[in-house]
Amino acid sequence: MYNLLISIGAAIAAFLVLKFVVGLSLTLSLLLAVPFFLVNYFLIARLVMKKVMAIMETANRDLQGQRIEKAVRELQSAYRYGKWQFYVTGQINSQIGVIYYVKRDFSNAFPYLEKSFVKNWVAMGMLAITHMKRNKKEKMLETFEKAVRWTQKESLLWSLYAYCVSEVGDVGKAKQILTRGLKKLPGDERLKHNLEALNEGKKMKMRNYGDMWLQFHLEKQSVVMKQQAAAMGGMAKRRIIRK
Predict the structure, then answer these.
(1) Average pLDDT, the chain
(2) Helix (H) or strand (E) segment spanning residue 235
(3) pTM of the predicted model, to two decimals?
């Protein structure tokens, strides 16, 4: 990565000047050269990420305007910064993969999700679900384990993991996953309720997570439409009552 190489080069140059021009000792020269590396790395990283964030904001405006392909092209233009800073490429892949997945373009989403940033738990969850739908249970488990290793404080991720495992027929393991989640998030009511549901032989209740849950497309479309119709009906009824 260019940032790392430039920062190392700056530190080496500083060391040589301090040691052979200024005449400081080897140890002192090394100690004083370290800040040159850190400052250079921080400044370049900040500059690069500022440019990446500007591109993401533009892409987000395109998404809000339903200009999906334009948003994807905009994000792809940020790949050039992947040579400058670690993890930029993975984060861009995550964003594009999520966009296609939410759009239900699963075939286009998959290659991006495969190369997504491991700390983007939404993208990792979508990748795990894709493996599940392709009957690759081991890949699904491996992906979820990576996700919870890096994102331990997200209730929906633990429930999503348990839900998928229960869907492939391993309710016992699903209970273990929820128990692990409760150790990381003690007192989380949604994890507690889902564990209780499985203990009682019932299905997990995921609708409490709202739209964040619906974006994973594990609910049947008919169910989602009924929920939306019911919500609209409730809103209309409340407006009539107010009148």
Answers:
(1) 90
(2) helix 221-242
(3) 0.85
